[in-house]
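Agenda item 2: zinc ion complex prediction
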Amino acid sequence: MIKRTSMRFAAAIVAALASFVAGPNAALRAQPQHQDQAPGFYRLKVGDLEVTSLFDGTGVFDPHWLNGTTARMDGVLKALHEDTHLLDVADAGFLVNTGKQLILVDVGTGGWWGGAAFGRFAGSFRSAGYTPEAVDIVLLTHLHSDHAGGLTTQDGKRVFPNAEVYVAKAESDFWLSPDIAAKAPKDAQPFFQSAQAIAAPYMKAGKWHTFSGSEKIVDGMELVPLPGHTPGHTGYEFSSRGQKVLFWGDIVHALRVQVQHPEITAMFDVDQAAAAATRHRLLPKLASEDVLIAGPHMNFPGLGRFHREGSGYSWAPVVFTDQWNTPAPSPQK
Ligand SMILES: [Zn+2]
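Presented output:
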């Protein structure tokens, strides 16, 4: 007994000495986990434009929100069983600093959709070095609250007090119509209510603008009608020094499913056939051009390019770099 106690005593002395000797070496001490992330923004250059992706949140797309043939959807469910991250999605908005104007394209959820894992857009925007007062223009791909919510606080105030907001007339007319809202199915009602509440303070201030053709809103930016997901769903294509970036809204929700199978639609598509047709028309075009795509629901930062792969496509996300002034080499086409 005495022997065991003295051995224990000796072990304690050795441990104390070891910690004394190792004291200055912090690596030997347990370090707290940080459990947070770097600020949610990522910048790159497109010609002379500075494009910043602004993180809003992440979630998981429910497989039952996807529509396809029974065989195709059975395949998706089987794949999801083997790969539980198959339907991981993100939400983001984007900022374009043209050097003259500060332009947002979609602004995240703003607490109007998705719960606690979303609503980071405003913080990401400030982390990127800007104040809401500095925004000149907001372009909305459509009026679902995961894209427009960040415009307006929950108590109905404008987040971007100096911004002129633009959206397609067909989009504005649809979601802001009391008659259409009254006839819509019950589970679609929240989409109408949130769109109306989000738009209201900008309409009141005379800062809500619609377009119906190819009006010029910003130099070097083209409107790209992409109907189907919603009646006035619109992409915005900016060009600078021969480089292009297309902000495409909700052309793809579930990246790893719809890129391989563009015919699969989402239940949020107001016109399923038109949504699939738009995707079928757009993807081959993008795959043959060197257009940077900015997609709010693609894995953050939601920036990449399309390439053909088999009967479908593959998504090549941008690779993180801190190289600023060296443009990425672009294949000659
Ligand atoms: Zn969306």
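Discussion summary: The mean pLDDT is 91.
Owner for follow-up: CH.
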